[in-house]
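Below is a filled-in request sheet from our internal design queue. Each sheet records the structural input a requester submitted and the sequence that came back. We keep these sheets so that new team members can see what a complete request looks like end to end.

REQUESTER: design group, bay 2
PRIORITY: normal
MODE: inverse folding
CHAIN LENGTH: 350
BACKBONE (tokenized):
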């Protein structure tokens, strides 16, 4: 049996989404949504259970765990693969070489880990990380006090940026209150819109972003090298994710164009418009009945267009002689070879 995808019970992230207190359910729902969109059915017979399976993948177990436990178990090889936030991977993975990112952009949970300081008092005119580090106030007896849930990343980041006297502490609940209460000088936490920081009279500073984060697909490197069946499952998962995520925001556009030949119509699309499609337009004859005889006066062209460029593409197609334009959203785009799988194989050899 393969053990796979420990992501359901993601630890709550403190206070930096627009709601002010995003729950672990959001990350879980986004992950389950991605799986469903990729035609992978996660089945849990009892909602109180911590184990499930995936109908389309044989011999695969899904374990529901906290994000920190997911990463720890990936490090020890107790689980094979998982989906967690990149911030969790870096904090609890501690740059372990046995952890390998299979897909680094699953398209949900976007945020960044950053330092926040008060907008008032001694910090009123401090606007960059270098200015914060240069403040003469910080000494061995009076260090910069930073409250965070990211002690590994925080210590490493601040040391790399010249902070000599720092005291890191953890706290339950919203971190934003700590500076106002006088228990910390700064916070290091996840930020999405920045609304929660502003509402608590805190600000980000230039150079104070530690990393950007979103959901990532991770695996144990040794397991992938030693067990081909696990690598095969990772390959299929990666192909499904990549095909769906690549297709997001893309539309298929079909239009009829009058022309003397398929080559002439193709030349018009390639040279008179900005939208040639993925490798080029698909051009096929449109047959009509003229007085009992089959004739070809039009050719149907098919191209792929990003959603935000859709109307401009339609305008250009019309200008080039297109009519009867049909538009439909794309669900999947499968490449000849998934680029990230080739990258994964290369990384496994390092």
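RETURNED SEQUENCE:
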């Amino acid at each position: 049996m393969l053990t796979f995808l420990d992501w359901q019970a993601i630890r709550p992230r403190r206070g930096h989404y627009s709601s002010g207190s995003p729950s672990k359910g959001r990350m879980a729902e986004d992950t389950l949504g991605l799986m469903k969109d990729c035609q992978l059915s996660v089945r849990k017979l009892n909602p109180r259970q911590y184990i499930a399976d995936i109908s389309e993948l044989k011999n695969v177990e899904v374990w529901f765990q906290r994000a920190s436990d997911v990463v720890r178990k990936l490090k020890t090889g107790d689980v094979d693969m998982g989906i967690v936030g990149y911030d969790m991977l870096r904090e609890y993975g501690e740059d372990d070489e046995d952890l390998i990112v299979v897909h680094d952009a699953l398209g949900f949970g976007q945020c960044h880990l950053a330092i926040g300081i008060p907008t008032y008092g001694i910090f009123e005119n401090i606007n960059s990380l270098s200015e914060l580090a240069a403040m003469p106030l910080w000494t061995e007896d009076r260090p910069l006090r930073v409250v965070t849930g990211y002690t590994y990343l925080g210590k490493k980041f601040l040391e790399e940026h010249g902070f000599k006297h720092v005291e890191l502490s953890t706290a339950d609940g919203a971190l934003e209150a700590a500076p106002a209460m006088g228990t910390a000088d700064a916070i290091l936490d996840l930020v999405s819109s920045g609304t929660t920081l502003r509402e608590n009279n805190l600000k980000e500073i230039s150079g104070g972003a530690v990393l950007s984060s979103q959901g990532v697909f991770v695996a144990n490197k040794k397991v992938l090298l030693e067990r081909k069946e696990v690598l095969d499952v990772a390959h299929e998962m990666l192909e499904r994710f990549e095909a769906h995520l690549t297709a997001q925001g893309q539309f298929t556009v079909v239009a009829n164009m009058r022309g003397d030949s398929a080559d002439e119509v193709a030349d018009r699309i390639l040279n008179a418009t900005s939208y040639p499609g993925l490798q080029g337009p698909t051009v096929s004859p449109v047959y009509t009945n003229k007085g009992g005889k089959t004739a070809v006066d039009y050719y149907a062209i098919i191209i792929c267009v990003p959603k935000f460029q859709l109307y401009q593409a339609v305008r250009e197609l019309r200008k080039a002689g297109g009519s009867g334009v049909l538009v439909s959203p794309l669900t999947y785009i499968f490449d000849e070879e998934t680029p990230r799988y080739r990258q994964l194989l290369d990384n496994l050899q390092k």
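SHEET NOTES:
- The two ends are 27 Å apart (CA to CA).
- The chain has twelve helices and 16 strands.
FILED BY: M.R.
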